[in-house]
Amino acid sequence: MTYAEQVAIEEIKRLFARRIRAMDTKDWVLYDSCHTLDATVDSFGTLPEEQRPAGSIARGKDQILAMIKKVVDGKVKVTTVHHAHMPEIEITSPTTAKGIWAMEDLLWWQNGDVEEHLRGFGHYHETYEKIDGAWLIKSRVLTRLRVNSTPDFQSYYYK
Amino acid sequence: MTYAEQVAIEEIKRLFARRIRAMDTKDWVLYDSCHTLDATVDSFGTLPEEQRPAGSIARGKDQILAMIKKVVDGKVKVTTVHHAHMPEIEITSPTTAKGIWAMEDLLWWQNGDVEEHLRGFGHYHETYEKIDGAWLIKSRVLTRLRVNSTPDFQSYYYK
Amino acid sequence: MTYAEQVAIEEIKRLFARRIRAMDTKDWVLYDSCHTLDATVDSFGTLPEEQRPAGSIARGKDQILAMIKKVVDGKVKVTTVHHAHMPEIEITSPTTAKGIWAMEDLLWWQNGDVEEHLRGFGHYHETYEKIDGAWLIKSRVLTRLRVNSTPDFQSYYYK
Fold first, then answer.
1. Beta strand C57-59 with C35-42: parallel, antiparallel or unpaired?
2. Which is nearest to A136 in space by CA: A45, A8, A25?
3. Out of A76, C55, C101, C149, which could bridge C84 as a Cys pair, Cβ 3.0 to 4.6 Å?
């Protein structure tokens, strides 16, 4: 492992952390600064194509931002907590890298008198690209080990 | 990022981990060794001044130690688990740094026949200082995304 | 901290992450590649000898693999999520190291019509050895802060 790779790994960990913190604090300007222009996000990496909600893959940073805002900061305000762990970052060239993170997410929202809740577990599989000296997220696929939720959570989430 | 900064980041991560481990294992000698003499801790960083419990900001390492011992290892023994994630550490000079960590804490204590429980989520915002060759925690503010607890937990915790 | 130590710490973090990911995704070939031939695992480090399930200490990588497969991927399929945090890695020689990680584990399995569940918290205490250029896990002791489970979980788990 070269010194430059060591630095890149730490920078990528920090980028990853910033993206999650931006999401959970709903800082959408910061969130938007974390992805490449052409980034793609697939939050249902474990589901076969035919079981996915329509438009479940976001293509381009504008779609990525629009999707996350719609889901957690639209008509319904969702409190979100995302924690990720034990990164395995591999630098594949001076300007490209990939990483796997174990993750947990918790979401709460008010559905009339009922508080809906989701708690999920899985892995983020990401790729990164260094552009103009800064590492950015180029792709993300979320695979799941387990998802628990209150009965009506999904009806909202997938609509 | 210089090599010295890389080393400092790893040392600060380890310091942070040691403080949390000391708290959860109730090793108060180790805990006390983690803060600067003049350290400050604000565990209610999200609350406006008027809603805070009296004396909620600890000033100086003696107050910090006294407060945590009173809360979790005084008349009432509280089992605590603190997990923190995705550090964003920034070295601001050869002897100063700051960091943000996503966190979760879980507390359990026996209230007569009832087991009280708290589970919270948020961020630690810390600053660090290097004194005599060792990094120490100089300040900590805890902001919250969400706190769940059994009904009587707060009455104890805030008293 | 030398540069070689910095690299070793990152390599050990990645090794640790790989072992956990292999366990939770039930990739037993990958799992088996993470331990030394003579590795030992004690998953009940907090219990006195007389309270432990028989054979609770696995000796050698074959026993380690057999034990974990029996517990989570035998007759009963257990969904597992292990998350570990805040590593304190210390390089004790060019080819040996030790580390402490805070941890949480979640297990679910179907017991007839009932879903059993365990959620535990504690610390992994590991040692590592570098063999033929690759870091491997040489020993692991799990100590516990707290374990919650459904009533019948233990009867299965310890049998």
1. antiparallel
2. A8
3. C101
The amino acid at B40: T
For residue A2, give the DSSP letter. -
How distant is the Cα of C48 from the closest Cα of chain A, in angstroms?
A: 30
| Rounded Cα gap, residues A37 and A60, in angstroms | 6
Is the Cβ–Cβ distance between B83 and C120 less than 8 Å?
Answer: no
Residue A43 corresponds to which amino acid?
S
With CB atoms and an 8 Å threshold, state whether A104 touches C81.
yes
Q: How far is CA A131 from CA A3, A37, A95, C55, C154, in A?
A: 19, 10, 7, 54, 52
Contact criterion met (CB < 8 Å) for C88 and B10? no
- Please classify residue A21 by burial: count the beta carbons closer than 10 Å to its beta carbon, then call 0-12 exposed, 13-18 middle and 19+ buried: buried
pLDDT along chain B (159 residues), means of 10: 95 98 98 98 85 83 95 93 98 98 96 93 98 98 95 68
Residue C28 host element (H or E)? helix C28-32
- For residue B72 the two structure tokens come to 């979790």
Q: Which chains touch B (3 or more CB pairs under 8 A)?
A: A, C
Q: Which two tokens stand for residue C69?
A: 């497969």
Q: Tell me how far apart the alpha carbons of residues A124 and A138 are, in angstroms, rounded to a whole number.
A: 13
> How far apart are alpha carbons C63 and C57 in whole angstroms?
9
d(CA A99, CA C120): 27
The 3-state secondary structure of B23-83, one letter per residue: HHCCCHHHHHCCEEEEEEEECCCCCCHHHCCCCCEEECHHHHHHHHHHHHECCCECEEEEE
Q: Tell me the pLDDT tens digit for each residue of C116-150.
A: 999 999 999 999 999 999 999 999 999 999 999 99
CA dihedral C109, C111, C117, C122 (to 10 degrees): -70
From C1, C83, C86, residue closest to B17, measured CB to CB: C86
Predicted complex: ipTM over 0.90: yes
Instruction: Put the strands of the sheet holding B114-131 in their side by side order.
Output: B57-59, B35-42, B134-149, B114-131, B96-111, B79-93
From residue C119, alpha-carbon distances to B20, C145, C153 in Å are: 20, 11, 10
Biggest CA–CA distance in chain C, Å, is: 56
